[in-house]
Design goal:
Layout lengths: L2 H17 L3 E3 H12 L4 H13 L3 E3 L6 E4 L16
Antiparallel strand pairs: 1-3, 2-3
Helix pairs in contact: 1-2, 1-3
């Protein structure tokens, strides 16, 4: 990614963490990005989303192209409880 793309990706992640709890649409993301940082093209948003999806941070819906889910890191697995000895 270019320097400007990295900055845009950081800003996109900032907007996502501030405004959305889980899933969101690209239209809403573009709106809130524009409110906070200024105009951005849909093409640029999609390029950044593609990169974040490749990094495993976001996942696009399989049924709705414009719906995106923010992937939270998986919860650490608990160690299995030891059986009680009598």
């Amino acid at each position: 990614m270019q320097k400007s793309d990295e900055t845009i990706a950081e800003r996109v992640m900032q907007v996502i963490t501030e405004k959305f709890a889980g899933s969101f649409t690209v239209k809403n993301l573009r709106y809130w990005y524009t409110v906070k940082y200024g105009e951005i093209s849909s093409r640029r948003i999609f390029l950044v989303i593609d990169q974040l999806e490749a990094d495993g941070i976001l996942r696009r819906s399989e049924t709705h192209v414009n719906k995106v889910r923010f992937m939270r890191p998986p919860a650490p697995e608990k160690e299995p409880a030891l059986p009680a000895t009598e």
